[in-house]
Write a structure and sequence with these properties.
570 residues; eight-stranded antiparallel β-sheet; elongated
């Protein structure tokens, strides 16, 4: 039988000169009795709250006060922010009913206190009885406008001749799907409170036990998907279509953890039974007439507990033999000591706890090689004390010898360390001397570089002066060469004019000779004489050109006299 504590908050408001009362609640306030984080529902009386907070299969636990009078809700006086009557005072009502104070002041005009009552869930049969009573009341009240019955209905099982046993172990996956479906649906709800959870649970129960909403919901997955989709608004569906993400996994996991207190395992199993009967008949007995023996309690689908001590497993009677083959709590006899040990602990018992397991003497490290059982170790230690002392003495002598050899080895190592230290110091001195030499060399290099720089500065001035002098001498030589060239050209032009005049005179003379004599021989002799004169003139011209070449080489070519002579011959 599962139980659940339900909390309810009683609210009141203060009116000056009148005091505290729920009658002074404002129009904008909700009714007197409210739930935490619930903004859509409140109740004026306990009867309305009791009916709304009680779902199918649950019943209110009957309590009595100290005088034996029946009582329903108890005031929570354990909180730190409440007064002696459980009231907490504040300026306004909060959705979470937190932040109140145990003392009333003029500014704190509202108050609330936490009421608690326990519900109990009996069995699947009680759940089916409430569902049957609700369906009957709905049929009888059809057309009258009255609501169907809910809550504390009859706990008698519905009259039926059908075996109701199912294989809960085979439908374990369904027990995981149902809470996950409610958690997913709650993400799309406008608020998350006990009242909204109860509404979702009632809707899921109606889909599992009632008629299908449409023909598509022929499987459990389709029913759960339709249940979740029914909570999604149009805007939510559009946003999920654009984001391509159906829900927030982190939010669903958080809601699943929060719903554990409101959805106990016994109720989940009852919901699972209804789902199996409708969607997985292969996991249900469904026998009619009692041929399976369900009246006698021998139905193979009945849920039975494992008989092995310490095992909490439950499964169908037909699967108990299979479970017994792997049950970790099934007792087995140890092969060595015959002690009854659970299957899951048998290996550890054999290795560490069995008194007949193989064991070694505590002095085996010293050389004791006696083969023992764990239960005989103590007796062996008492019987062989003298032998163990001799083994210890031998081991002690061996350790002393090892210690002496270790000391000698340590002395050798210390000598080597001293020598290495001396060599290290010598090397360190050499390194220091080399560092000193390097520092002095660096100083000399710096001085030499400075001297070179000063020398370069001193040489740079004369070199520049020399360059300027060479440039000026070059200009003077160029001017002199230009003047010599002009002078030679003038001389050559004057000599050329003189030679042209002489040639002209010779030509005139030759023309006169041709005219004065017609004798060819005379003419030849005259020509020969002229040739001689031309040769002489050629000699003169050559001597003149040689002298001009010596004076101005670039201006007079050596071939000039020959050219002039050839002109003269022509």
């Amino acid at each position: 039988m599962a139980t659940m504590d339900v909390e309810l908050f009683e609210c009141e408001r203060y009116r000056l000169m009148a005091g505290w009362s729920s009658d002074y609640l404002l129009v904008t306030d909700k009714a007197k009795y409210r739930l935490r984080n619930c903004a859509t529902k409140s109740w004026k009386t306990f009867e309305d709250a009791n009916s709304a907070l009680l779902t199918a299969g649950w019943a209110w636990e009957q309590m009595q006060d100290d005088q034996g009078s029946p009582m329903s809700w108890t005031v929570d006086l354990q909180a730190s922010d409440v007064d002696a009557e459980g009231w907490s005072y504040a300026a306004t009502f909060s959705k979470e009913f937190q932040g109140g104070s145990s003392k009333a002041t003029l500014q704190k005009v509202v108050r609330w206190r936490r009421l608690v009552r326990t519900q109990t869930f009996s069995s699947t049969e009680a759940l089916e009885a409430c569902m049957t009573a609700s369906a009957t009341a709905a049929g009888s009240n059809q057309g009258t406008g009255k609501e169907p019955l809910k809550g504390e209905g009859s706990t008698d099982a519905p009259s039926t001749d059908v075996c109701l046993h199912v294989d809960l172990a085979g439908g374990a996956y369904i027990q995981r799907l149902l809470p996950e479906a409610i958690a997913q649906a709650s993400v799309y709800a406008s608020e998350w409170s006990l009242h909204s959870f109860l509404l979702l649970k009632a809707q899921l129960l109606e889909r599992l036990a009632g008629k299908p909403v449409n023909q598509k919901e022929a499987t459990l997955d389709a029913v759960l998907a339709g249940f979740v989709n029914a909570q999604r608004s149009m805007s939510t569906r559009m946003s999920e279509a654009f984001s391509r993400k159906s829900h927030d996994d982190a939010a669903v996991a958080k809601r699943l953890r929060e719903a554990e207190a409101w959805f106990p395992k016994a109720e989940i199993e009852a919901f699972t039974v209804l789902a199996i009967r409708r969607f997985r008949p292969d996991l249900a007995c469904g026998c009619r007439g009692g041929s399976c023996g369900w009246r006698e309690g021998t139905c193979p689908f009945r849920t039975v507990a494992c008989e092995n001590p310490g095992c909490q497993a439950h499964c169908c009677a037909k699967d108990m033999a299979t479970h017994d083959l792997v049950c970790p709590q099934k007792l087995f006899s140890c092969e060595k000591c015959a002690e009854m040990v659970p299957r899951g602990e048998l290996k550890a018992h054999t290795l560490y706890a069995c008194p007949a397991r193989e064991a070694k003497c505590h002095f085996s490290i010293c050389g004791c090689e006696v083969h023992l059982e764990a239960r005989n170790v103590e007796a062996h230690l008492e019987e062989c004390t003298q032998a163990h002392l001799m083994l210890l003495m031998r081991e002690l002598i061996k350790q002393q010898e090892n210690a002496k050899s270790s000391q000698d080895r340590i002395a050798d190592l210390e000598a080597q360390c001293t020598q290495a230290k001396t060599e290290k110091e010598a090397l360190q001195q050499k390194c220091n001397a080399m560092e000193t030499n390097v520092a002095s060399l660096e100083t000399k290099v710096g001085t030499f570089e400075k001297t070179i720089a000063d020398g370069l500065k001193k040489v740079a001035g004369p070199v520049e002066d020399l360059k300027k002098s060479v440039a000026s001498n070059k200009d003077v030589a160029t001017k002199r060469m230009d003047a010599s060239e002009k002078e030679a050209k003038k001389k050559f032009d004057s000599m050329e004019k003189c030679n042209k005049a002489e040639l002209q005179a010779l030509r005139t003379e030759m023309a006169a000779l041709k005219d004065s004599t017609g004798d060819i021989s005379l003419l030849r002799s005259t020509i020969d004489a002229l040739k001689g004169g031309v040769r002489d003139l050629e000699v003169k011209v050559c001597s003149t050109s040689t002298s001009l070449s010596a004076a101005v080489p670039p201006m007079v070519s050596p071939a000039a006299p020959k050219a002039i002579a050839s002109k003269v011959e022509s």
